[in-house]
Amino acid sequence: MSIRLGIVGLGKIARDQHLGAIEATGGIELVAVASRKATLDGVASFNDIQDLLSSDVEINAVSLCTPPQGRFEQAMAAIEAGKHVMLEKPPGATLSEVHALEALAKEKGVTLFSTWHSREAAAVEPTRALLAQRTIRSVAVEWKEDVRHWHPGQAWIWEPGGLGVFDPGINALSIVTRIMPVPFHLVRSDLFFPENRAAPIAASLVFEAVGGMAVTAEFDWRQTGPQTWDIRIDTEEGPVVVTHGGSRLTVDGEQRMVEEDREYRNLYKHFVQLVGEGRSDADFSPLVHVADAFLLGRRHAVEPFED
Ligand code: NAP
Questions:
Q1: Residue 210: its pLDDT value, please?
Q2: Closest residue (by CA) to atom 40 of ligand 1?
Q3: Contacts of 162 (CB under 8 A, 6+ apart)
Q4: 35 CB under 6 A from ligand 1?
Q5: pLDDT at site 207
Q6: What number of CA atoms fall less than 13 Å from residue 70's CA on the CB side?
Q7: How many whole angstroms from 123 Cα to the centroid of ligand 1?
Q8: In this structure, are residues 257 and 129 in contact, taking their beta carbons and an 8 Å threshold?
Q9: Best substitution site from 8, 12, 167 to test ligand 1's pocket, by max atoms within 8 Å of Cβ?
């Protein structure tokens, strides 16, 4: 039986990625949308998730594409109503709320899928397999992009819980937590807050991995021109370089992979599988590192940011 899905929050990512990915995935169909301002032709449209859940439109799952602040209440309502839930990244505004969701989903016997779209980039699993065979000396992440281009007019991203530059930075952390063969933990965090904003525009992080190796990450939202989403791993056997957000892999100077983007199609395929098998997939480790970055963060004021 096909999953009857409702999308909540018809914004940029829902339109850019979710709609096409659902269309391209077997075993799932979009039957409803809940969004305050947007509607979708040919699909039942509601103002919010409460209206959707209390309607006579039959759904058995929701995909939450709203900002992280406020998503907890939506997810709780859906799980309470016995619906399977797919969460955009980051899974929530706090760690305690996402753990509460995980516990409730288990109690209610529904699937909770906390997605990390960057983990679905083509180079991620091959890099994980390769690093399991190598001795890592250091890892350097550079995730630098132009906030004006990627988040035009999105106020929530600068508000508490919106994560600021960690909104893209958590994508890098989702990849690193997947490919590293050993755990790592934060030892230093410098956060750069525009004087007029409640979230950082840049962050500089130093982690230490088991065995003492350094993992560094530079996140910056002020980059214009070419954008940088790179992870460079120095291994005793030679350099392993993952670029373009995880879609390209170069090993020992030789390009191994250049793949087209299938991230969201992979996510929906996995969701259909999880629901079919009655399982959840909720790894919150990237959010743990972001929370640590705020806990340990040394704050620096930088010039005001205007949209
Ligand atoms: P967005 O363009 O602002 O869309 C979110 C939608 O959620 C809005 O259009 C809005 O639709 C609805 N919404 C409900 N409550 C809201 C509130 N309090 N404030 C603002 N909007 C609210 O954001 P987005 O870029 O799609 O991002 C949504 C989530 O996807 C985030 O967690 C983000 O990290 C993730 N994501 C984004 C991208 C990207 O490239 N943009 C990529 C990957 C993942 P209504 O006004 O109609 O209710």
A1: 85
A2: 13
A3: 67, 68, 69, 156, 198, 199
A4: yes
A5: 98
A6: 12
A7: 27
A8: no
A9: 12
C-alpha to C-alpha distance for 250 and 256, rounded to whole angstroms: 5
* Ligand 1 neighbour 120 (Cβ under 6 A): no
Question: 3: which strand partners?
Answer: 28
Partners of residue 188 on adjacent β-strands: 206
Contact, 29 vs 86, CB < 8 A? Answer: no
pLDDT over 90 (residue 272): yes
Convert the pLDDT of each residue in 128-165 to its tens digit. Answer: 999 999 999 999 999 999 999 999 989 999 999 999 99
Catalytic residues: 89
> Could you identify the atom of ligand 1 that is nearest to the CA of residue 48?
48
**Maximal CA-CA distance, the chain:** 61
pTM value > 0.85 = yes
Say what the pLDDT of residue 192 is: 98
Confidence of residue 1 (pLDDT cuts 50, 70, 90): confident
Tell whether the model's pLDDT for residue 260 goes beyond 90: no
pLDDT in tens, 168-187: 999 999 999 999 999 999 99
DSSP-based three-state secondary structure for 245: helix
CB 197 within 8 Å of CB 164: yes
Ligand 1 atom showing the smallest separation from residue 37 Cα: 47
Supply 209's token pair.
């991995």
Structure token pair of residue 141: 């992440």
Task: State whether the beta carbon of 150 lies less than 6 angstroms from ligand 1.
Answer: yes
- Ligand 1 pocket, 149 CB below 6 A? no
Distance 297 CA to ligand 1 centre (A): 26
